[in-house]
Amino acid sequence: MNTHLLDRITGETRAFSQYLLPNEDLEVKLSSFFTRIKNPAMSDLKLAFPDEVRTSKSYPRDVPDLFKGDQLMVIGRYRGNAKGTLRLTGIVNGGKQSKDFEVNFPRRSGK
Question: What is the model's pTM?
């Protein structure tokens, strides 16, 4: 199985992947999969960083939909020095919503 290709497709389509191992029950795995994707917690996600912070090389480039029980993790590089608000916006139950998080992007020592 080419998991690297499947993971790449998943990343580029804002989806998620799940694999069936040889000793797993297909019916249980499919039931779990459909239960998970039936009701996303938030879709069409966008992140807005404080104005003084510039990001680059972030992964995933396009933030995937968020499902119940998921964690949202974005990694990358930043420049700037700011305490402020990170805003996550998306669609919940057909309506646009946002959630603000207080963040601190300290200047790296030696830079």
Answer: 0.69
Q: Are 68 and 36 in contact (CB under 8 A)?
A: yes
Phi, psi of 9, deg, nearest 5 = -60, -45
Q: How far apart are CA 63 and CA 11, in angstroms?
A: 9
pLDDT one digit per residue (tens) for the chain, 111 residues = 678 888 888 777 767 777 888 898 999 988 888 887 777 889 999 999 998 899 999 888 888 888 887 888 899 999 888 889 999 999 998 999 999 999 998 887 655
Structure-derived torsion over alpha carbons of residues 45, 89, 59, 54, reported in degrees to the nearest 10 = 150
